[in-house]
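Memo subject: From amino acid sequence to C-alpha cells
Keywords: amino acid chain, backbone geometry, C-alpha cells, three-dimensional fold.
Body of memo: The sequence and its C-alpha cells, given next.
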Amino acid sequence: MSWMKTSKLISFRLPLAVCLLTSGLLYCFSFLIEHSFEKISIQHNVSELNSVIDSIERELVYYSPDENRDEFIQNLLLILTGHHRLFVYVIDDTGKIVYRTRGPNLAFAKTQIDFDAIIKNHSTAIWNQDKASYRVAASSVVIENGKKYTTIAAVGRDLYIEFIHRLHDGLGLLIGIACILALIGSFISIYFTQKPINRLIKKIEKINLKSLNYRIPTSLVPIKYVSLVKAFNHMLNRMEDVFQRQRNFTADIAHEMRTPITNLTTQTQIVLSNARSTNEYREILYSNLEEYEKMSQMISDMLFLAQADNRQLVPNLIDIDLHNMITMMCEYFEPLADEKNIVFNLEGNCSHIQGDKMMLGRAISNILSNAIRYTPENQIITITLSQVSEKRIRIIIANPGKKIDSKHLPHLFDRFYRVDESRHRNGNDSSGTGIGLAIVKSIVETHKGSIYAESDEQSTRFIISLPATI
C-alpha cells in the first residue's frame, strides 16, 4: 500500500512541479519580451524627438520673423512629415508662439514639467493630459541676434501603451494555456510511465517466503526498466539462497543437537531402569559428560560464527611467526597422525605477520584435523608457506585423498555442508559437525584475507592468503 501511496503522491507532485516550472520560465520569458520592447520603444521615441528638435534648431538659426517666416513654416512642415502623432511647440524668449502643431497645448506642460532640467540633462519626461500620455523633450537655442527660442516636442504614447497591454494579456494567456498543456502532458506521461511500474509493484507485492523462486519476466516492463528487473531478480536469487541456507542450517543444528540429547535421554532411562553400582553410575556420568562437552563445543562454535556474522570479532593483533606456529601445531597433531602413519611436511617460509594468534591457530588447527580425517594411511600432508609479495603471504595445506567434485568446492565453507552424507562423524573436534571450515573462513576474513579450495586426483588443497599487516 505504501508503494501505491508513494506512486499517487508522485503522480500529483510531479505535474504540479512541471506546471510551476513551465509558468515560471514563460513568465521570465514574457517579462524579458515586455522589457525589451519597452526599452526599444523608449529609444525609438527619444531618437525621434531628438532628431526633430535638432532639425528645428538648425532652421531656427536662420529664422527671421520679418524675412522668411513662410519659408520657416514650410521647412517645419517638411521636417514633421512622416512623424505620426508628433507635436511641436516653438516660442521665443518673450513667450510668443512661433509655431505649434494641432493637438495638445504643450504650453500646459510647462506648468507640470521642469523643462530647465530636461534641457540641461538632454532627457525626456512623461506628460499625461486628458487621458492621453506623451513623451516630452525640449531644447533652447540662441541665434546671432541674441534672440532665444525654446522648442518643445512631444510624441504620443497611447498606441505603445495599448500594444504593451495587449502583449501582456497575450503572454498571460499563453502562460495559462502552456501551464494547462504542461499539466495535462505531465499527467499523461506519468500515467504511461507508471503503468508498467504499477504492474511491477503488483508482481512484487505477491512475492513472499513461499514464492521466492518466482522471477519477474523482463517482458512486463519497457526496455529502460529491464536492468532494474534483472537487479531485482538477482536480489531474489540471493534472498532465496540465504533463506534456503537458513532453513538448512536450522534443520542441521536441530539434527546435531538431537543426537547428543537422544544419547543423554537413552542413557539416563537405562540407568533409571535398574539399580546400579557406584562405578556404573560414574561411567554413565562420564559418558554424559562427553555429550555435554560436544553440545557445549557446538554452542560455542555457533556463538563464534554469530559474532563473525555481526562483525563483532576483533582480533588481538600481535607479531606471529607462522613457520614456528605451524611447526608447534604439527607436533600437537602428531599423536593423532601417528594412528594412521601420516607425516607432516612443512615447506617454505614467509615474513612475520600481524594477527590474532588464538584465532589463526584455531583456523589452521581445524584444517589440519580435517586433513588428517580424510587422508589415507601412510600418506604425507604438505604445508607450504610462501611470500606472494611484500605485504601478502600464502599458506597451502594439501592432503592426498579422494577427489572432491568441483560442484562441492564453493560450498565447503558453508555451515553443516557435507560432500558425502554417508560419512560418519567421529572425534570431538568441531569440524566433525560441519562447522569447522565455516569457522576457518570467518577467521580468515576477519584478518582481511581469503580462502578457497582446490581438488584433483593427487590432493585436496586449502589455499589461505593473508596480509602481512592489517
